[in-house]
Amino acid sequence: MTTGLHRRMKLKSDVNDNDLLRLMLAGDEEALALLYRRRQGSVYRFALQMSGSRSIAEDVTQEVFLFLMREGHIFDASKGTVGAFLLGVARVHVRRRLRAEHRLEPLSDDSDDDDLFMQSTTDVCPLEDLTRAETIESVRKAVLSLPPKYREVVVLCELQDVSYGETAEILGCAIGTVRSRLHRGRALLLAKLRPAEDIEETGAATVKSARCFA
Amino acid sequence: MNCQRFETVVSELARGQMMAAEQRADALAHSDVCDDCAARLGDEQMLTLGLQSLASEMESLEAPREIEAKLLEAFRARAVVVPITKRQSNSRYWLAAIAAMLLIAISVVVFRWSSRSADEPRQVANQDKRQEQPQPKPEVTNKSNEQLVQDIEKPSVDESLPKSSKPKRIRPVNFRRPNNAAVANHVTKEIATDFIPLSYMSPASLQEGGQIIRVQVPRSALANFGLLVNMDRYNEKVKADVLYGVDGMARAIRFVQ
User: Fold this and answer.
1) For residues B109 and B101, what is the distance between their CA atoms, to the nearest angstrom?
2) What pLDDT does B254 receive?
3) What is the C-alpha to C-alpha distance for residues A149 and B124, in angstroms, rounded to an integer?
4) A156 burial class (0-12, 13-18, 19+ CB within 10 angstroms)?
C-alpha cells in the first residue's frame, strides 16, 4: 500500500502547485501531502526567521496549511503563485502570533532558541567552524532585531531568495517599496553588526560614517 | 559617479543583482578611487556573505514530521465529515422536494374538485332559469366575467322583499357571488334595474372583461329607456352603472335607486 501511495505521488510530482491545490480542494489527500512537502520548508523557515521561535514556526506552518484546506478556494492564480500565497498567509499568522506574545522585541541572550543554528555540519577546523557559527548567530540576532516591516523584506529577499516581484505580492505593496525597505533593512543590519566588528578589529566602539563626498 | 550615486547602487552591487554593465563598471571604478565607498562596498559584501551563510545554514530546516501527520489526519477527518453532511443535506433536500410536489398535486386536485362542484349546481340553476324565462339576451360563457354577464342576463330577485307597485324591471340586486368587490360594496343595498343594452352586444364582446362605472344622469334619461319618470323630481339626477367593454365602448346601463 505504501509503495502504491509513493508511486501515485511520484506520478503527481510533475503536477504544478495550482493543479495540486485544485486536487486537494477536491478531496485528494495525496495532493495535499505533495503540496505540503513542496512548500512546508519555505513556510517553516520564513516563520522561524521572522519569529526566532521553533514553536511559533511549527504552529504557523500548521495553521497555514489548515487555512489552505479551509480557504484554499480564495487563491487566485492570476495574482501570484501558490508559494507566494502561502508565504503571505504565513506572514499574517506570524505577525498575529508575535503581537499576541509580545515577541516583537529582540530575543534575549538566554533564550532557549538561541542555539537554533549552532549546528556544526562541516568537517572544517573547529575554530573556523566556531567563527562561522558566531557570524551566523550574530547575523540571525541582527535580523530578528529589525523592525517587522524591514525584517520581512530581508527574510524574503535575502534568506528565502524570493524575487522583488513576488515579495511585493506577498507583502501587498509596490516593488519600489520592497527595494527601499530592503535598502533600509540592510543599512540597519550593518549598523547593528558594525560595532562588534569595529570592537574586534580596532578595539574601539566608534562607528565610521559610510559616506564620503569624493 | 559620486558617493551619493554609489550609495544607491551599492546594495545591488554587493548582492550581485543584475544591473547595467556600464553602471556596474562606474560603481566599481568609483570604489577604486574612494576609500570610504570601498569600505562601504566591503561592508555590504560582508553582510551579503553573512546573510547567505545564515540562509544556507537554515536551508535544510523543515517542519517536524508530526505536523504533516496531523494535517493529513485533519484532512481525512474533514473529508469524512463533509460527505456525511452532504448526504444528509441531499436526502433532506429530496424529502422536501417530494413533499412540496405532493402538496402541490393535492392542492391542484382539491382546487379543481371544489371548483367543479361549485360550478355544477350553478350551471344547472342557470339552465333552469333559462328554460323558465326565455329571453333573447346574449349568452356569455366566460367565467371571469360570469357574474357580470349574469347581471345582464338574469338579475336575481330577492323574493323576501315585499312586492311593490313599482315597475317590474326594478328589482333588488342580489349578487350570489360578488367577485367584484367594488361593485358589490355599493350595490348590495341598492335597488337597480336590469342592465339595458345600449347597442347590439354579442357575448363575445365581454369575453375579455369589462368595467362598470357609476355615473349620474338626468332623471329624464329614464324615459329614453322606457322607464317611468316622476315628474315631481324631474330635475333631479339619478345614479346609473354603465358597463364598458375593453374597447371602451358603453355596452349597457342600469339605473340605481
Assistant:
1) 12
2) 86
3) 92
4) buried
A48 near A57, Cβ under 8 Å?
Answer: yes
pLDDT of B119 strictly over 70: no
In a domain, B77, yes or no: no
For the beta carbon of residue A34, count every other beta carbon within 10 angstroms: 21
The counts of H helices and E strands in chain B are 7, 6
A92 and A155 together in one domain: no
Residues of chain B positioned with their CB less than 8 A from the CB of A20 = none
Interface test with B, best of A122, A156, A158, A189 (most B CBs within 10 A): A158
By C-alpha distance, the chain B residue nearest A135 is B50
Domain containing A85 equals: 14-104
Beta strands in chain B (DSSP E): 170-172, 191-193, 196-197, 210-218, 237-245, 250-256
Question: From the list A33, A69, A186, which residue is nearest B47 (CB)?
Answer: A186
Give me the domain span that covers residue B223.
141-256
Set of cell numbers at residue B61: 530546516
Interface contact flag, A49 B72, Cβ < 8 Å: no
Of B33, B71, B75, the CB nearest to A214: B33
Please state which of the ranges B2-16, B29-43, B153-167 shows the lowest mean pLDDT.
B153-167
Task: Report the residue of A159, A182, A201 to disrupt the B interface, i.e. the one with the largest count of B CBs within 10 Å.
Answer: A159
* In-domain check, residue A185: yes
Residues A52 and A86 in one domain: yes
- Chosen domain end from B82, B108, B134: B134
| Highest-scoring range by mean pLDDT, A8-12, A197-201, B107-111, B184-188 | B107-111
pTM, two decimal places: 0.54
What is the CATH number for A51? 1.10.1740.10
Q: How many domains does chain A have?
A: 2
What pLDDT shows up at residue A155? 93
- DSSP-based three-state secondary structure for A204: coil
> A179 with A152, same domain?
yes
Query: What CATH number should be reported for the domain holding residue A137?
Result: 1.10.10.10
Which chain B residues are within 8 Å of A37, Cβ to Cβ? 68
Residue B212 makes CB contacts below 8 A (sequence gap 6+) with: B148, B180, B183, B241, B242, B243, B244
> By CA distance, what is A58's nearest residue in B?
B63
Question: For residue A5, what is its C-alpha cell?
Answer: 501511495
- Please check whether residue B42 touches A, CB under 8 A: no
Residues of A in contact with B68 (CB under 8 A): 33, 36-37, 40
Task: Kindly state whether residues A79 and A151 are assigned to the same domain.
Answer: no
Nearest-Cα distance to chain A for B94, in Å, is 24
User: Measured at the alpha carbon of residue A44, what is the angle toward residues A79 and A121, in degrees to the nearest 5?
Assistant: 130
Whether B55 and chain A come into contact, CB under 8 Å, resolves to yes
Is residue B33, in this structure, part of any structural domain at all?
yes
